[in-house]
Design a protein that fits this description.
Layout (H helix, E strand, L loop, with lengths): L2 H9 L2 E9 L6 H10 L4 E6 L3 E6 L11 H6 L2 H17 L11 E7 L4 H12 L12 H5 L3 H10 L5 E5 L4 H15 L4 E8 L5 H10 L24 E2 L1 E9 H6 L6 E10 L9 H15 L8 E3 L6 H15 L6 E3 L2 H4 L6 H9 L2 H4 L1 E2 L23 E2 L5 E8 L3 E8 L4
Parallel strand pairs: 3-7, 4-5, 4-6, 10-11, 10-14
Antiparallel strand pairs: 1-8, 1-9, 2-3, 6-8, 9-15, 12-13, 14-15
Helix pairs in contact: 4-7, 8-14, 11-12
Length: 419
């Protein structure tokens, strides 16, 4: 291989060098990982407007670690989650941040939706004044534009490179990683801060809509409410949170002696083109195959599959149908689910679910799917890790599924970095 070709090949290799997490059961990767290994749930009772008590995954990170109170009042919860995670990721990366060229940094944040929270809040406020729009906040427009969480990060951190929010429903966390990888490979940026965030629990509309569908989980014990693959599951637990990482080209990371969490080696995004909300196992399987093809590996090379399963009847069954098609002959793969611990973090779901599994490269443990007491035969595979973590002989490849409404599917494959 010629020197130029070798340099091109190295520059196309994109690695994770820093991680920032805000999860309902942990405010950094170490806490989050410890919680899922210990079976600790972050789902609690939660009060929402008009509906009263519901169940939700609620975060408890320090909003003012990286923000002033004035900026938090002006901004949004989604922006605050993103700011916290972005700063944590940069801090964790060991980058000499003051000397990083900020015009060569890109911010790519996956979201399910943005603006509902602020719009609901403003309408509720003006309802107290006879719907007089004079009391409508002048901060409403910058709070509700779709680029808000990523834009708030750039304002907070002095980043002058490109920023985007990627609206990809519940596939958005993976989509954020993919956007960052692509921009690095194109040479548009030298550092990507990317992943996904969610502020969904702060809008009553999402709870009301799932309830209208008959898809909102209920349980007397909040920690047992999210039950993917279980016969007793009765719906989704809505959660907030965020997972952002720093991505760099491999030569840049090696040159500064960075810790490398893993290398993104494969990805896929496609569309079902069949229904607004009902998933399609054939298209999901196609997306998995696309990611495997890009990674240059086969299904037998995957050690852990981080499933999307939302604890809805058809959703779980369709995904397991796709997994059976791809991995049914691989008895060694471990399939797990992170939502069982924290609920469905929407735009942040894929990001948090991948990051919760990343430490497996070092400890060789697949965390469990909790609350799986009575497996539904229609969505059960023996490879699913139920209730107790599973030790593995090795973990070299992790495949992360993340699917969303309007039939968007995303898959990311991360490989252990071995030089």
């Amino acid at each position: 291989m010629a020197t130029g070709e070798r340099n091109d090949a190295l520059n196309s290799r994109i690695v994770i060098t820093g991680v920032g997490v805000a999860a309902p059961n942990g405010n950094n990767l170490a806490e989050f990982r410890a919680a899922v290994l210990a079976g600790k749930s972050g789902v609690v009772n939660y009060e929402t407007r008009y509906m009263g008590p519901v169940l939700a995954g609620v975060c408890s990170f320090d909003e003012f670690r990286y923000q002033k109170k004035k900026d938090r009042r002006r901004g949004t919860r989604g922006g605050s989650v993103a700011i916290y995670c972005a700063n944590e990721a940069v801090k964790d990366s060991g980058l000499d941040w003051p000397n990083v060229a900020k015009d060569r940094v890109g911010v790519y944040v996956g979201i399910t939706e943005h603006g509902n929270v602020e719009t609901e809040n403003e309408i509720y406020e003006i309802s107290k004044f006879g719907y007089d729009t004079k009391v409508w906040s002048h901060h409403h427009n910058p709070r509700t534009v779709a680029n808000n969480p990523a834009g708030e990060v750039t304002l907070n951190m002095g980043i002058s490179g490109p920023h985007l929010c990627i609206g990809a429903a519940c596939a958005a966390g993976n989509a954020g990683f993919i956007q960052g990888l692509q921009m690095l490979r194109l040479g548009e940026v030298d550092l990507a801060i990317c992943g996904g965030v969610s502020e969904s629990i702060h809008t009553f509309g999402i709870f009301a809509s799932f309830q209208s569908q008959g898809a909102l989980a209920r349980h007397e014990d909040p920690t047992k409410a999210c039950r993917p693959f279980d016969k007793g599951r009765n719906g989704i637990v809505v959660a907030e949170g965020g997972g952002l990482v720093t991505l760099e080209r491999l030569p840049d990371a090696l040159a500064r002696g960075a810790k490398i969490y893993g290398e993104i080696v494969g990805y896929g995004i496609n569309s079902d083109a069949t229904d607004f909300v009902l998933p399609n196992r054939s298209r999901q399987a196609e997306c998995i195959r696309l990611a495997l093809k890009r990674a240059g590996i086969s299904a037998s090379d995957i050690d852990i599959v981080s499933s999307h399963a939302t604890a809805t009847e058809q959703g779980d069954q369709e995904e397991v149908g796709a997994l059976r098609e791809i991995f049914g002959d691989n008895p060694d793969v471990a399939i797990n689910n992170t939502k069982s611990f924290i609920g469905h973090a929407m735009g942040a779901a894929g990001a948090l679910e991948l990051l919760g599994n990343i430490p497996s490269f070092d400890d060789h443990i697949a965390h469990a799917t909790i609350n799986l007491d009575d497996p539904d035969p229609g969505c059960w595979m023996p490879q699913i890790v139920a209730n107790q973590p599973r030790e593995l002989p090795r973990v070299r490849h992790i495949l992360n599924n993340s699917f969303g409404m309007l039939g968007i599917n995303s898959v990311v494959i991360v490989r252990k970095f071995e030089g």
